[in-house]
Structure formats: C-alpha cells, structure tokens
Amino acid sequence: MRIQNLTFAYGSDKIFDNFSVTIPSKKICTVVGGSGCGKSTLLKLIASLIQKQSGEIILDETEMGPVSYLFQEPRLLPTENVYSNVELVLKSSIKDDAERKEKVFYYLKRVGLFQDRTKYPSELSGGMKQRVAIARAFAYPSKLILMDEPMQGLDIKSRQVVLGLFADLWEKDPRTTLFVTHDLRDAITRGSSILALGDPNNPVDFIDVDSMRPLNDEKYGVLETRLLDAILI
Amino acid sequence: MKKLISVIKTYIIFIFSIICILMVWQIASHLLGSDILLPSVFSVLKTFVSLFGNKTFSMDVSFTIYRAFKSFVIIVISSSVLGVFGGKYKAIGLWMNPILTVLKSTPVMSVILLAFIWFQTGTVPVFSAFLMAFPIMYMQMETGYKSLEEEMIQMCNLYGFTKQDQVIHYIIPSLTKSFIIGSKQTLSMIWKVVIAAEVLTVPKYGVGSKMQLSQMQLETGSVLAWTLVAIMLTALGDILFYGITKMIASMSNSKKRSRAL
Questions:
Q1: What's the CATH number of domain A1-65+145-233, 3.40.50.300, 3.20.20.140, 3.60.10.10, 3.30.1330.90?
Q2: How far apart are CA B130 and CA B136, in angstroms?
Q3: What is the DSSP letter of B168?
Q4: Successive 10-residue mean pLDDT values, chain B, 261 residues
Q5: Which CATH number is correct for B36-252, 1.20.1250.20, 1.10.3720.10, 3.90.1150.10, 3.30.200.20?
Q6: Domain limits of chain A?
Q7: Reduced to 3 DSSP states, what percent helix, strand and coil does chain B have, rounded to the nearest 5?
Q8: Residue of A nearest to B151 (CA)
Q9: Would the CB atoms of B259 and A68 count as touching at under 8 Å?
Q10: Which DSSP state fits A114?
Q11: pTM above 0.80, yes or no
Q12: Spans of all domains in chain B
C-alpha cells in the first residue's frame, strides 16, 4: 500500500501534511505515536470512513476489496449471539447455509469460543468479546485488516490471549494489517515493520523490523529508543 | 433458591399492599357510615360479581376493549413510523415539536369535549385517546432512534451488512426497548382516556357509560364496581402485552439458538 502526499486536517488542526509512506503487503505493520498524532485517523482514511483532503492511497492488488476493522471496543451486535455476530458478516459472500455454518464454527473453534456460541455479548468478558471481534474480522473475506488499539482496556492476561489468537489466525491467513498500539513492546514484537508517527512537520519514521531480526536485548533497546525519539518529538 | 425467595418476597409485599388499601377503604367506609359516600369493600365486591350477570356486561366490556385496542393499534403504528422519521430526520423532529407541545399541554377534558362536538359518540374515545397518547409513543420512538450508535452503523457498513440486515439485526432490536416502554405507557393512558370519554359522551355500550349511569343514580357501589372492571382491564392488558413480548423474545432467542447449534 502506498500513501502519497496525504493531507488531512480536522478544521484548522492539521493531522497529515503531504504525508507519504509505503506499507508492505501481507505483513503486519504496527503504528505507534502519541495521542492525537493521527494513528486512528490514518486507519479511518484507509477504510474511507473519512475523506482525505488531498493525496492518494494506492492499494496493492492483494489489498483491494472489503476491509476488516477491529475497533477499540468490540462493537458486537448486542441482541445477537456469538454465532450470529460472526455469521452475519458472511451472509453476502457465502449463500449456502451449511457452508457458512462450517466456516463460523471453524473460526469460533480457533478463538476458543465454540462452546460459548449461543451466549450473548452481555454474558461475555471483555477478552471474550474481543475474541469474537477477531473471529469476525478473519471470517470476513477481507483483503486488509485495520486494528485500532483493540486490546485497549483488556487486562494483561486477556491481552496476551487475544494477541496470541490473533497471531495464530494471521499466520494461517496472512493479510496486510495495520495495527495501532500504544505498547512499544507489542509494536516491536508483533510488527514486521513499525510506522512511528510524530507531528505533521516531522511525520514519520518507518522501521523495517524484520530486517533486524533476531532481536537481541541490544537491538531491542536501540529500536525502543528510536521509537521514543520519533514519538516524543 | 435465592430467586424463588425474592419472587415470594415480591408477592408477599404486593398482597400486603392490596390488603392495606382494602383496610383503609373499609375503615373509611365504616367511619363515614354512608353507602352513597363510600360503600364497604364487601358491598362493592358483591356488586362487582353481580355485574357479570348483567345482560349488557359483555357488550360494555367488549366495546371498551375494542375502542382501546383500535386506538392502540392506530397510535402504535403512526407514532412509531413518525417517531423513527423524527429521530432520523432533524427537520421532521423540529416540525413535530410544536404539535407535541400542544398535545402534551392540552387538558384531556378539552380534547374530549371538542371531539364530542366534531364526531359521533363512538369515535370520541378513539380520537381522544389518539391525541392524548400519541406524544408518549412518538417521543419514546424518537429518543430510541436518536440513541442508535453511529459506531455500530459504521461497523455494519464496514462488514458489508445489507440495509435489510442492519434494520433486522441492529435497528429494530435497539428500538425494541423504547417500543415496549412506549407501548406500556400508551396502553395505560388509552384505558384512562377511553373510559373518561365514554363517561362524558355516554355511547350505547361502554364501561364509562355504565359508570356515568351509575353515578347519575347515586349508585356509588356500582361506580366503584365498574372502576374495578376498568382496573382489571388495564391489568389484563398489561399482562397480555407482557406475555406477548416475552413470547416473541423467547421465540426469537430459540430461533437464534437453533441456528447456532
């Protein structure tokens, strides 16, 4: 995905000013930055939830099509059970009921919620709800996954479980993923590359983490310092 | 077990409350010592039982139920549709505001008296109930629609939900709570207005007509017995409505459950 000369402002508050970057296809790119630097805005622009003022977002052939979006809150339909919350996103792509059911069962098993498929969101913990959201995101035949801090608000244990499940599903079905996080450790360990956003005048530091692996303590420390420098401009 | 104890407690308090009302009534009746001012509980209950043997009793009750039901259906359909549009389109909401303000602040009696000038006696209760209860249901539905979450609509759009699926799986379930609250309030308002209109316009059959006739003949016991009929109709209406909503919810849940198994 190539973002070229992207400009966007909320009123007089400029978020991106001629911002350009290339995001590798079928890899996880983590996005870090301080509050209000435009991390979520970038995802919304890519998903066309808001319209850019100028510039271009050019998608690779493998990225064109529907988008799976993992929000900060799971955004599950409150009156539908776990099964239906996943099944409904497949209705337009899989017309055959049995085939659709098989696919929903597969993803629910993968996120460990098969036994809980008749439960409603109000009966689930925060971590379980986010696992349903992950199952929904992967079940949906998307080409691109956008994650806007979906682990925010989860306790450490749930967070690790959800991240583990996400990594597991992603390994089986890799798609270009932008993962916004506040956690530098997650950014370094989960991302093939890291996009560190600063202010509009000094917008970006793009780090190819894969080229630095395996990460030892020294490399990890260097990366962390570099990210902090980029964020804390 | 805990739940059972809680249910038993609720019933005990409910029965105790009714016993208190009846005791106060009986004491007041005893103190006043006049059947015209306030007959005793037992005398009213006797009259109440005797009403069932009345030749026109079933017609009176049926016509009142018919008028209430007719008003209810008209109000629920019209105010739900308009309420949703009022919530969705700001211009419609603004346009409806003065109408609602007028309807909310107009005394019930003014509406009934005016309707009596304009319509036949049988139509007055339905028309009056419509004007009085419409704002209740409308406002519930308008507020319900306004409280739909933009974020959820955004999610539905991103995950390729058709408009039909959005309506069936998000919008209608989200409006259900407002619909049920609005319908309950509407129903209890309808009973009151329909019977009040019957009292004033005295159609051939109706609970209100019988109350008016009893009052003219200074049969206080009969007025109270017909009032008891009105209270029972309201309670039965509530129970029936509760039963229907519970049944629909349970059918919908079991359908969803069976799809997931």
A1: 3.40.50.300
A2: 10
A3: I
A4: 84 92 91 87 89 90 94 94 94 93 90 88 88 93 93 92 93 93 92 92 91 90 92 91 91 87 84
A5: 1.10.3720.10
A6: 1-65+145-233, 77-142
A7: 85, 0, 15
A8: A75
A9: no
A10: G
A11: yes
A12: 1-33, 36-252
Contacts of A143 in chain B (CB under 8 A): none
pLDDT in tens, A76-90: 999 999 999 999 999
Identify the residue whose tokens are 């379980």.
A128
For residues A123 and A81, give the distance between their C-alpha atoms in angstroms, rounded to a whole number.
10
CA distance, residue B254 to nearest chain A CA (Å): 10
Please, what is the end-to-end C-alpha distance for chain A in angstroms?
A: 26
Which residues of A are less than 8 Å from B176 in CB distance? 79
Prediction ipTM score: 0.87
| Alpha carbon distance B45, A215 (integer Å) | 88
Contact yes or no for A47 and B158 at CB 8 A: yes
CB contacts < 8 A, A to B, total 62
Which of B154, B158, B163, B250 to probe the A interface (max A CBs under 10 A)? B158
What type of residue sits at position A23?
I
| pLDDT band at residue A233 under the 50/70/90 scheme | low
Tens-digit pLDDT profile for residues B28-64: 999 988 888 888 888 889 988 998 888 889 999 999 9
Q: What is the Cα–Cα distance from B68 to B26, expressed in whole angstroms?
A: 32
Give the one of B160, B162, B169 whose C-beta lies nearest to A77's C-beta. Answer: B169
Chain B closest-CA separation from residue A183 CA (Å): 24
In A21-142, alpha helices (H) = 39-46, 82-87, 97-110, 126-139
- Nearest by Cα to B100 from B142, B139, B144: B139
